[in-house]
Structures are given as structure tokens and as C-alpha cells.
């Protein structure tokens, strides 16, 4: 993961083509704006961002003249050139769900504009006023040996001037006011002693920043922390002295995308556009491993293992978000009993059931669950942030619910908290006592009402994944992984029969036994081997019968129609070999409730016979079977064995 | 890097910065010949070129650039 400006967003595989589509698509302006909004949610550089902005301009109003998205009137004032910031600012706003109508003051005229009640600024009637100041503005006449009291007086005097401007701005417009800290340039006078000399220029600037924040907090002004942003980027990279002399350019042009995003998220926060709810996946997001398969004892979480500690640290970060008023929800493909187990029983969990306002663990699509979470909490899906380690789930949400914020999840859980933090989805404008009690109040209104099935175009999503399945008989190469799956899979496992590697090898060499090892890949990921089939002729039956001894699958590829494609292969084999029936058992365990209706969903009928209570047999006549349609492209090199 | 290579890579940068894939560069070309080549985009061009070739232009060098040919020469000198 390279930490470029917008590193929490996915990079775009073909930006030029996507941009062209936004420009030439025949859709309505509204539809084209949606395309552009999706494009804005990528990790773009400053040139790409400027081109998105050019495309955005004609799309901001609908054909009837109304704004295409909620629009905030922003007055942007400063003491340096801010033109380069504008495209990034507009695109960042679009990324965060709103548009900006911008008034930019004349260069370095912000005091006059704020003082003069007949200025263009006041005629504009802004919703938000942002003051972005350059440190050159703060040059004082202080002697290097000026004592603390003199320095403090000078700093207070300047900040008091600003306070006067803030109060004028607020009373005349009612606008929210944002004021930037200044970036302290890395220009040392005494070296590291600078911080200890009251009147050294870097120290004076730092004191401005400190006092500014104090007064801003008192006056209800928001602070754009440019100094903090410059520290993130690194001042060696941030400072381009030449550009100041050329163009009075104080913000680094190459980093406009993050500068724009930093300001846009604050403007959004001031006007209620920040996200409210963090929706978390569980397996490999809150802990390492898969609770349904690995069990409570074997998931990675907590002290003693570096990765376990990383997951725990992420939970600690999430808990802090909850404590400041972010609602937490869980959306996991799991049996609910399994999913809740760590919350109730694992000693190293930081998050507990009472921290989670809504808990959805089931096998439906995550898009449907997210809609349910939003409606249960009575908020819009545009207030959700979805954090999930599975790229296919993220892609599905981006496509089906484009208003949900979906940050990339880094490959290393050690980077989870940092990524979520830097994405800035939960930018706050204040911290109140209500915030602290939010989860409790949401929990009381949560009613897990069953809502109607999702209207989304799942078929289209699956098609877009370009899934490729490769099925072959057991072989030496796959032996180890086959045995591993057979001995580890608990949830999507019809019979939970365990076999050793030696037994698996025997199946492979027995020609009467039909075996399949199945691999799946798609546009986003290679899932590797995800399913195993063992089927053998059932002895002493009136009509020739193929018995499915083992059918298991990794839950990661659930809801992808893999089961249907696999059934097609089994039935093809049965047909070729002249079987009349295919039968299979569902042997119930504590963990495989997920596949209770597996055979029924695939068109099998239940067989009534004397059998242990936890076994249900199912059968399907070969002659009546017609191949099931799927969106998966299947390769089976051994499709026509003798 | 050859002059041709520098030309090719600069062409891609121009297409991005001036948002026009039809631009064909030549040595004599100046800001007057390219739509959108205003002071704002001039800064963008300088920064994008610096970033792409991992070079830094000095303040005086940026002022002295007469045309595209001079920019190509400068890039070649800086990357040599």
C-alpha cells in the first residue's frame, strides 16, 4: 500500500476511458453526475482531479434548473493563491455527496471583505466562510530576544483581530466559520532550540496555532488544521518555496487532492454531511480467521500474536469512535450464533454486544443488509461507512449502493485503524453529551423488522464479476488443500465427513468414485480452491444411484451461484454414466445450519426413510434435470472422461 | 532519455493538464497555441512535469521557458 494522497480509495484501472464515458454518455445529467461521483471516489492525482472538475461544471444543475445534489454556498478567503485548490475542493465535495457554489475573494482582501458590510462576500450570503491563511500574514516585529509576555501579547492581539472578524461574519450571515492553522515552515533559526526561545519565528507561529485553536473552541469556529495535514504529508514534500515566489502559491499543488478533501470534509461536517454509522464485517476484519470454521479457540485476536494484537488495536480504535458517538453495526455472512460467540465469550474482545447497535449475521447479500441497517436506525444509506476485508463485497456495495462510503481495506490489519482514520468520513463539527449516549439510544429504537427482499440487480453484479470456475478430478497437486478443506470446513459442509490425506489419495485413484476439486477466480480476486465433491455409486439399489458423500464449499464465495454450477457438473457425470438417481444427505451439526435447505434449493426432493434424526436424505431424478443457468464460465478439462 | 522519449512522455502530460488528447507538440509551440494554457494550468504543467520526471525546476528556469522545445531541452538536461 503506497500512502499517496487519497490512499483509502481504490485507484482507477482506466481513468481516461471512464472520464470520457462521463462526458459522452447519453444519460441524463443526473445519471452522468452519478458516474462522475463514482469516479471521484477513486485515488486521483491533481491533474485527473482537475479534469473531473471540468466535467462536473455543466452537470451541477438538472434540466429544470434545480441543483443536482444538495449545494453549499462557500466563501473561500485567503492570503495566498487558492485557485489551484478549487478543482480538488469541488471534487472532494462531490465525493462526499454535495456540491459547492463558491465565492472566492480577491487575493489578500479577506479583512476588507469581512469588515465592509456591502462587500461581495455578504451579497453572496454564504453558508460557510473558510479563511485559509498563509504564514507570511503573521510576520511580527518581535525582536528575537522578546520575552514570553511580549510574544503572548502580540499573538493575542492578532487572534483578537480574527475573533472580531469571526463575530462580524457570524452575525451578518449566520454562516459557519472555518479558520486554518498556518503551516510552520521548516526554517530553523536556533535549530531545535527554536521551540524554547519565545520569540523565535517558528515558535511564534506555533503559538498562533495554539491560541487560535483555543479561541476557535470558545467561539464555535471550526479549525482547518493545515499544520497537521502538512505534518502528515511531510514538510520536505509540502514546502515548495519556488511556487510561493512564482505564484503566491502556498498550498502544494501536487497535494491539492488531499488539501481539497481536508477542507471539504470540514465543510460537510459543518452542514451535516459526515457519516454516522460504521458497518463492520467480522471474519478477518475484527479478528483473524473465520469463526464458523476455526472456532472460538483459533481465531487470531489479542496479545501473544502480532496479528492478533493488530486486530485488537483496530477494535480499540473502533471502540473510541463509538465512544464519541459513531453508531456501530455488524454485517457478516455467518450464522448468528457463531458470529455472536466472540462478543460473548472471547476474553480478548474489546468490542462487546452492547457496543453494537445493529447486528446482522446471515447469508443474504450485504447490500440488502446495509439497507436494513440504515432503515432500522432510521438514517440514510448515505450515512454509512462499510468496512470489509473482502474486495468482492466492497465492489458489490460500490455498485449497488453508491451512496455508501466504502474505503479500501489494506492487506495488513495493522493498517486498518490508520486507513479508516485518514479517510475522514466521521469528521465532527462538535462533541456533545448526546454524542456519548448515542449507541444506547439507538439500541432502544432498533427493531429487527423483516423487510422485503432487495430489489437490486444481483444478476448484473454477478455478471460483472466475470467469474471463472475450474473443475478437475482430485490429483496429487491439490491433495493437501483438498484434505485441508475436508478437515476444516464446518459451515457449508453437507455431511462434515473428515478424511485423511491418504484416504483422499485413495478416492483419487478409485475410478468408480467421482471427485471434483473446484477453483474460482473473478475480476477482483483469485479465491483458489473453494469447493470439494466426492460422490460414489450407492450399492444394492434398484436403479443405478450416485451418492454425494461430500459436498463442501468455502463461505467466501457464497451467493455466487457456485452450487448451481457444481450441480451441473455432477448431473453431467451422472447422465454420462447412466445413473437414474442422484442422492445426498444433509447431516445436521452445530455449525452447518446454513446448508439445511441446500438440496431443496437445488430442486431435490426429501426421501422418507428410517435414518438417524439428524440426517435428511434428498434425491433428484437424472432424467428430469436440466442444466441450471449461472453467470459463471466453467472449465472442466475432464468433462468427458470414459 | 532520448529527445523522442521526452517528447512522448511530455505529450501525455500535456493531454492530461490541458485536457485535450489532440495536442501534438512541436518545438515552437507556446502558450498561445494551446487552449486552456493559462497561468493556472502553467503551474499545473510545471508541477506535473516535475513529478513525472522526478526533477525540480529552479525558479529562474521556469521564468525563462520560451516554448515547448525549451521545456524538452530542460527536461533532458535535468534527467541526464
Give a short overview.
The complex is a heterodimer of chains A (642) and B (80). With 642 residues, chain A is of the alpha/beta class. Helices cover 39% and strands 16% of the residues of chain A.
Please give a structural write-up.
- The complex is a heterodimer of chains A (about 650) and B (about 80).
- The longest helix of chain A has 26 residues, at about 150-175.
- With about 650 residues, chain A is an alpha/beta fold.
- In chain A, the strands form 3 sheets. Chain A has an 8-stranded mixed beta sheet, sandwiched between helices. Chain A has a 5-stranded parallel beta sheet with strand order 2-1-3-4-5, sandwiched between helices. A 4-stranded parallel beta sheet of chain A has the order 8-7-6-9, with helices on both faces.
- The longest helix of chain B has 15 residues, at about 5-15.
- With about 80 residues, chain B is mainly alpha-helical.
- The mean pLDDT of chain B is about 95.
- In chain B, helix 1 (about 5-15) crosses helix 2 and helix 1 crosses helix 4.
- Chains A and B meet through helix 3 and helix 11 of A and helix 1, helix 2 and helix 3 of B.
What's the SSE blueprint?
The complex is a heterodimer of chains A (642) and B (80).
Chain A: H1 15-24, H2 29-40, H3 46-56, E1 71-78, H4 85-95, E2 99-104, H5 110-115, H6 120-124, E3 128-132, H7 148-173, E4 176-180, H8 201-219, E5 222-224, H9 226-233, H10 235-238, H11 241-247, H12 256-270, E6 277-280, H13 291-294, H14 306-323, E7 327-333, H15 336-345, E8 358-362, H16 366-377, E9 384-387, H17 391-400, H18 416-423, H19 433-436, H20 438-445, H21 458-464, E10 468-472, H22 479-488, H23 501-509, E11 514-521, E12 526-537, E13 545-553, H24 562-576, E14 581-587, H25 598-601, E15 605-607, E16 615-621, E17 633-635
Parallel strand pairs in A: 1-2, 1-3, 3-4, 4-5, 6-7, 6-9, 7-8, 10-17, 13-14
Antiparallel strand pairs in A: 10-11, 11-12, 12-13, 14-16, 15-16
Chain B: H1 3-17, H2 39-53, H3 59-63, H4 68-79
Amino acid at each position: 500500500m503506497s500512502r499517496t494522497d487519497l490512499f483509502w480509495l481504490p485507484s482507477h484501472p482506466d481513468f481516461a476511458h471512464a472520464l470520457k464515458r462521463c462526458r459522452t454518455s447519453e444519460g441524463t445529467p443526473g445519471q452522468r453526475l452519478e458516474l462522475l461521483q463514482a469516479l471521484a471516489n477513486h485515488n486521483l492525482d491533481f491533474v485527473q482531479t482537475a479534469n473531473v472538475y471540468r466535467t462536473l461544471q455543466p452537470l451541477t444543475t438538472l434540466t429544470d434548473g434545480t441543483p443536482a445534489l444538495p449545494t453549499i454556498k462557500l466563501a473561500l478567503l485567503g492570503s495566498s493563491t487558492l485557485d489551484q485548490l478549487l478543482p480538488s475542493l469541488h471534487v472532494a465535495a462531490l465525493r462526499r455527496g454535495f456540491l459547492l457554489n463558491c465565492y472566492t475573494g480577491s487575493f489578500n482582501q479577506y479583512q476588507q471583505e469581512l469588515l465592509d458590510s456591502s462587500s461581495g462576500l455578504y451579497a453572496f450570503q454564504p453558508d460557510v466562510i473558510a479563511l485559509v491563511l498563509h504564514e507570511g500574514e503573521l510576520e511580527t516585529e518581535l525582536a528575537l530576544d522578546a520575552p514570553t509576555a511580549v510574544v503572548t501579547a502580540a499573538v493575542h492581539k492578532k487572534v483578537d483581530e480574527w475573533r472580531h472578524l469571526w463575530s462580524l461574519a457570524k452575525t451578518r450571515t449566520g454562516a459557519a466559520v472555518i479558520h486554518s492553522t498556518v503551516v510552520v515552515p521548516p526554517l530553523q533559526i536556533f535549530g531545535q532550540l527554536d521551540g524554547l526561545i519565545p520569540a523565535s519565528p517558528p515558535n511564534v507561529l506555533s503559538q498562533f496555532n495554539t491560541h487560535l485553536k483555543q479561541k476557535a473552541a470558545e467561539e464555535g469556529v471550526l479549525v482547518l488544521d493545515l499544520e497537521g495535514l502538512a505534518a502528515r504529508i511531510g514538510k520536505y514534500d509540502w514546502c515548495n518555496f519556488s511556487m510561493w515566489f512564482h505564484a503566491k502559491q502556498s498550498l502544494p499543488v501536487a497535494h491539492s487532492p488531499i488539501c481539497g478533501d481536508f477542507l471539504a470534509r470540514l465543510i460537510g461536517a459543518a452542514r451535516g454531511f459526515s457519516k454516522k454509522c460504521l458497518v463492520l464485517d467480522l471474519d478477518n476484519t475484527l479478528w483473524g480467521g473465520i469463526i464458523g470454521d476455526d472456532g472460538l479457540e483459533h481465531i487470531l485476536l489479542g496479545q501473544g500474536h502480532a496479528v492478533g494484537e493488530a486486530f485488537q488495536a483496530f477494535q480499540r480504535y473502533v471502540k473510541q469512535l463509538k465512544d464519541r458517538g459513531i453508531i456501530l453495526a455488524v454485517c457478516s455472512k455467518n450464522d448468528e450464533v457463531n458470529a455472536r460467540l466472540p462478543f460473548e465469550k472471547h476474553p480478548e474482545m474489546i468490542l462487546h454486544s452492547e457496543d453494537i447497535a445493529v447486528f446482522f449475521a446471515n447469508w443474504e447479500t450485504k447490500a440488502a443488509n446495509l439497507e436494513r441497517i440504515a432503515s432500522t436506525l432510521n438514517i440514510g444509506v448515505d450515512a454509512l461507512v462499510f468496512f470489509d476485508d473482502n474486495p468482492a463485497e466492497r465492489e458489490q456495495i460500490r455498485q449497488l449502493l453508491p451512496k455508501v462510503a466504502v474505503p479500501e481495506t489494506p492487506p495488513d490489519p495493522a493498517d486498518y485503524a490508520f486507513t479508516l482514520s485518514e479517510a475522514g468520513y466521521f469528521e465532527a463539527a462538535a462533541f456533545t453529551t448526546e454524542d456519548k449516549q448515542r449507541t444506547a439510544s439507538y439500541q432502544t429504537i432498533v427493531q429487527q423488522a423483516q423487510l422485503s427482499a432487495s430489489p437490486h440487480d444481483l444478476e448484473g453484479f454477478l455478471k460483472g464479476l466475470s467469474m471463472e470456475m475450474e473443475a478437475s478430478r482430485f490429483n496429487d497437486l491439490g491433495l493437501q488443500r483438498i484434505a485441508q478443506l475436508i478437515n476444516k470446513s464446518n459451515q457449508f459442509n453437507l455431511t462434515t465427513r473428515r478424511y485423511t490425506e491418504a484416504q483422499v489419495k485413495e478416492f483419487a485413484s478409485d475410478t468408480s468414485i467421482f471427485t471434483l476439486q473446484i477453483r474460482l477466480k473473478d475480476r477482483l480476486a483469485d479465491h483458489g480452491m473453494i469447493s470439494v465433491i466426492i460422490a460414489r455409486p450407492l450399492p444394492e439399489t434398484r436403479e443405478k444411484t450416485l451418492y454425494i458423500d461430500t459436498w463442501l464449499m468455502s463461505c467466501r464465495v457464497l451467493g455466487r451461484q457456485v452450487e448451481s454450477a457444481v450441480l451441473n457438473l455432477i448431473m453431467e457425470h451422472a447422465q454420462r454414466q447412466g445413473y437414474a438417481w442422484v442422492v445426498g444427505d444433509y447431516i445436521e451439526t452445530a455449525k452447518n445450519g446454513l446448508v439445511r435447505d441446500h438440496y431443496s434449493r437445488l430442486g431435490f426432493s426429501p426421501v422418507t426413510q428410517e435414518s438417524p434424526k439428524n440426517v435428511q436424505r434428498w434425491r433428484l431424478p437424472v432424467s428430469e434435470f436440466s442444466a441450471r443457468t449461472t453467470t459463471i464460465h466453467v472449465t472442466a478439462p475432464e468433462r468427458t472422461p470414459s | 532519455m532520448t529527445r523522442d522519449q521526452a517528447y512522448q512522455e511530455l505529450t501525455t502530460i500535456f493531454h492530461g493538464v490541458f485536457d485535450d488528447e489532440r495536442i501534438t507538440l512541436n518545438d515552437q509551440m507556446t502558450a498561445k497555441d494551446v487552449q486552456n494554457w493559462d497561468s493556472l494550468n502553467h503551474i499545473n504543467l510545471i508541477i506535473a512535469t516535475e513529478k513525472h520526471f522526478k526533477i525540480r525546476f529552479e525558479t529562474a528556469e521556469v521564468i525563462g521557458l520560451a516554448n515547448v522545445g525549451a521545456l524538452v531541452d530542460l527536461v533532458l538536461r535535468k534527467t541526464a
